[in-house]
Amino acid sequence: MAAELTGNILVAQSGGPTAVINASLAGVISEALNHECIEEVYGGLNGIQGILNEDLIDLAGESQQAIRGLRYTPASALGTCRFKLRREADYQRILEVFHAHNIRYFFYIGGNDSQDTANQISKMAQASGWEMRVIGIPKTVDNDLVRTDHTPGYGSIIKHVATTVKELACDADAMADHDLVHVVEVMGRSAGWVAAGSALAKRRDHPHDAPHIILLPEVAFDPNKFLDDVTNVLKRQRYCMVVVGEGLVDAEGNYITTAAGATDNFGHSQLGGIGDYLKELVDGHIDGVKTRSSRLGHTQRAAATHASQTDNNEAFMAGQAAVEAALDGVTDKMVTLMRGETDYYSCETGLTDLEEVANGVKHLPPQWINEDGISMSYQFVKYATPLIQGEVQVPYEHGLPAFVHLAKIPVEKHLRPHRWE
Amino acid sequence: MAAELTGNILVAQSGGPTAVINASLAGVISEALNHECIEEVYGGLNGIQGILNEDLIDLAGESQQAIRGLRYTPASALGTCRFKLRREADYQRILEVFHAHNIRYFFYIGGNDSQDTANQISKMAQASGWEMRVIGIPKTVDNDLVRTDHTPGYGSIIKHVATTVKELACDADAMADHDLVHVVEVMGRSAGWVAAGSALAKRRDHPHDAPHIILLPEVAFDPNKFLDDVTNVLKRQRYCMVVVGEGLVDAEGNYITTAAGATDNFGHSQLGGIGDYLKELVDGHIDGVKTRSSRLGHTQRAAATHASQTDNNEAFMAGQAAVEAALDGVTDKMVTLMRGETDYYSCETGLTDLEEVANGVKHLPPQWINEDGISMSYQFVKYATPLIQGEVQVPYEHGLPAFVHLAKIPVEKHLRPHRWE
């Protein structure tokens, strides 16, 4: 047991929202309120960007109802950002904010870029002699963080995608007066985890259920093979449902469609349009079929009404575990999810070095992709099925989900405004 | 009470599927099984197209479990079509099928084109002296059928759209490191009922909730006014959510974007792409904003997991009422939904002439659109709110909705194959 460290908590969210990132926030807040050495529980608005602006809110001042409501409210209740710390002056400013508000515990909920940010901040604080504990809490629909069995957010997005594929398959199956090819474009920039998850839409022992073709960034795209695969499905049945991850690449590793080389603040290519591309490919090369394309877009990561209870519980647990670890004296770690060894699914939290997680990418194991390159193996289904179990019961009011809105009581600023230059 | 007519029932589904069209089918089947003068309950596969092919199935042979499951399974379990009867020989063929299978009751679940088809078939049967009763059952997500307060399918699609808008608004609200314009394209070819329904996403007394701009086919689109409206929203808040009906037109009544004049079998223009068009319009004319567009596409009408229990109940009730009316000797009518006069919402079924419904289009009352042209009045909200109440509880299995699949036991064919020419 490390020496007790008395002071305030700062928690913030970063990167793309998910259906359960607020459950992790709720986990942090609920656990923090149990410990006397924690004096104030502050939230940083819009991730690191708001912290630079000294935009803190008093989370202990929120109603119990609002904190409970975070369990089923999608997206980042604290706001998020995709800002990357680069300047020495920015790091110094963060340290000033920590000093000004006696921040001794910093929890950053995010993906690999965010874990990298948390790691840098912790190093900087240590170098300056400011005693504090920094713990990362994993979050990403992409499931591409290393050192964790899976990532909070992933179970819910694949539950949403598989549910939508099942619903669309009912629709496609009904339209039997012509052959139909329906392309569904889903998220997944550098790894095919989300597209792969659509495989769960197949009922056991019904290999011909949708989706019929899954296109993954891990498998180089070959237009001729794709057209052959579609043709083969249409020989067998009247519709062919294709699920494609947005980051599809060719044999040279180039994205199939990238809008004029646009990139975000982290240098990632901005993708989109692969669904329409594949639709047009079929239109141009296979006669007598009707084609559709759907781009699920941001609805995928915001679909709280399709969230997995298992995912939600684990996201909450990860938030709690971060606080517990920090109070035990741990720092510079990210909470991980560890699956039990037994056949019956179980999950506990663990810890890994922030350093290890930062900027790593976990790809789909190649052996989980069948030899045909367009379907998932039994091992993948065994891995992913437990993650989508249970349905989050969102309360409804007047016929619609009653998401909560935080009061966001501002913490008084002590510093001069930040110079953004 | 009309003379009892003993014979068989034929029920079929037509046009675009909805989340509750199978509830109407379940209503027909459940009610039919209560009456001794009904001998067999047949389903026609793929609407009128399957009837021409003599593709009938024995619905009485389906399990009770499957019939119950129709209550929450989206899309047309019997299959559907968009085929339009034109040739005299086709009408004659249908009569032959009726004779061959002693069809004395025909129920057609569909939109205005389908009610027209039912009307023509009934006239033809009467002219030939074949005694039968023909009742239409309304169905369309578009809510554009005349002579009925609203149409089964509408409540569920707007519940889905409003739910999705609320979820996307959480996501947009979280991304506050730049101004954001998010365009959501929804269904609605000739009327703006679906786009209008998104107005329900606003909480009472929160006029600044999303959606901030609703673009309806009833209001001629003016790009300059649109850009002004977006700019005004962004003066007030950090994101602007736009919901647009796919059938948006300019002052001359031309669709804003129509892909090369493509039309379906009924001569309707095939639409799409208006969301991307608006996104590009903002990109090109308003500096410093980030833009997104979502095309909800076919997920809208298949979203059983977001269906309205009120809508579902009314769809079932419409199916039952059709059978009851036919057994009472009624023919050539469509079932309607009639709202009670009191403030407390109630709904009963009525009947109207097929003739009146066929090919009519119900537009949004102009007085339900506010003077700003981009928001809905209190009267619309009062009209639409009761239609989305209650959540259909879809059973889940292994983490996903357990939709049913009919056994589709074929009825033996008695006729030679149809000559399609």
Describe it.
The structure is a homodimer of 421-residue chains. With 421 residues, chain A is an alpha/beta fold. The first copy, chain A, is built from 13 helices and 15 strands. In chain A, helix 1 (21-32) packs parallel to helix 11 (309-327). The longest helix of chain A has 21 residues, at 154-174. The first copy, chain A, is elongated, with a radius of gyration of 23 Å. At the A-B interface, helix 6, strand 11, helix 10 and strand 15 of A face helix 6, strand 11, helix 10 and strand 15 of B.
Order of helices and strands of chain A: EHEHEHHEHEHEHEHEEEHEHHEEHHEE
What structural category arises from helix and sheet content of chain A? Answer: alpha/beta
Shape of chain A: elongated
How big is the Rg of chain A? 23 Å
Q: How would you characterize the largest beta sheet of chain A? A: 7 strands, mixed
